[in-house]
Amino acid sequence: MKYQIVKLKQLSGKKATFYTVALEGEKKTLFERFLDENEQDFSYELIDIVDRLGVMANHVGAIRTFFKENEGRLGDLVCALYDSPKANLRLYCIRLGNAVIILGGGGHKPKTIRALQEDDKLSQENSLMRLISRLLYKKIKEGDLFWISDLELGGDLTLETDE
Amino acid sequence: MNNSEEIYIEKLEKIQRKITPEHRASTLKRMGLAARIYEGMQAKGLTNQEFAFLMGKKPAEISRWLSGTHNFTTETLWEIERVLGIQLVVGATSSTPDVLQTFIVEEIRKAFERFQLQMAVNQ
Fold first, then answer.
1. Alpha carbon distance A110, B75 (integer Å)
2. Residues B73, B106 share a domain
3. Which of A92, B44, B81, B108 is deepest in the core (most CB within 10 A)?
4. In CATH, what number is assigned to the domain containing residue B63?
5. Are residues A38 and B54 in contact, defined by beta-carbon separation less than 8 angstroms?
6. Residues B33 and B77 in one domain
7. What are the tens digits of pLDDT across the range B46-72?
8. In the beta sheet, which residues pair with residue A147?
């Protein structure tokens, strides 16, 4: 299975660059799928999320405190965009410093559930990001993926599993 | 050197068009304040927990403040200004001199360390 890291043109600014993941054989990227899945029921929350990502990209950067860390295994860089107390949407991502974020998918997280494992969809989206994080780390460690500027990744942005 | 592929999402554009100037201004203000408070904490070498103690709040509340989603009251911002020795509210400067602020922060930090030590001894 192949996963391609792609840059989001509309969310790339002078302070941060947002990427997402294109899955082999699928038309839509993970972030696009997230927008599609939640457009109907959580349109206001989506507007708020997109606005916050835009402010990070162009004005303040992707500061650590804007994200909930340790949403995967310890040290695997998987986090979630911080949600306000009234919000219901969870968006998973991989944060590489203040300037590069890889957006994944997510979904509705009712306030009645505490752990993501209680929800199949969230659990699935989180597992996928953890897998991508592992593959990404391997590429970085092997020197195939690297920084080409403070704001941009370069090299081989295709991640692959043996399956 | 390979550059990454750039994509354009039409739906994202559609959502971006729905962001009103008022919403953007409010988001910018909330996130900008959170960023400046975080910088202020870093400049003073304060952890989340230490800052919470100095503010008389729980660490979870500080996390919310720093998340960029919180609407601050002016009173809270004044209190943060006093503790961190920074200016957040334009047009209303803090009345406590810098040296005194540093002294107060140091004293409270020492008190917090003593408190933590005492808690450890009691356990």
1. 32
2. no
3. A92
4. 1.10.260.40
5. no
6. yes
7. 999 999 999 999 999 999 999 999 999
8. A153
